[in-house]
Amino acid sequence: MDEAVEDRAGAGEAGREDGSSTVLVVHHTPSPPTREVLEAVLEGARDPEITGVTVRVVPALGATVPDVLAADGFLFGTTANFGYMSGALKHFFDTVYYPCLDAVAGRPYGLWVHGNNDTAGAVASVRRLTTGLGLVQAAADLEITGPVDAKVREQCYELGAIVAATAAGDI
Known about the structure:
By secondary structure, this protein is α/β, with parallel strands linked by helices.
């Protein structure tokens, strides 16, 4: 999964002539519950009714500037660690922020955060960076505490679908 790439349409740079879109999923999912959240988000992003979208899944420590520049939309996932996003997602933003500044403004994103009891600091830290990059929030942040149940999986699916549909121009 970490290195998986699903092609539904063409691949290439953002704004492809063939009308296809790419959603880049950048995540840090070290535990079984966070993997379950990732899987549900991906199911939504890969909803068969959303066409012309390539879903690229890249772990936060492996995502690069070219990955970001080639994406039309983003899904970010992280654990809440000591009141902040994971170090892996922070590393991702540290790596791509300045090289991508202004180049990705206006592109949609969605965020999910899983924590044991509090996600507010992690959400706020990611929002500061997405705001700085000029990304546009396509769906409400998904803040998950505790176990992953059917309701959470449904919310994750919706998050993935909304961002993919927005990147595809369906919303």
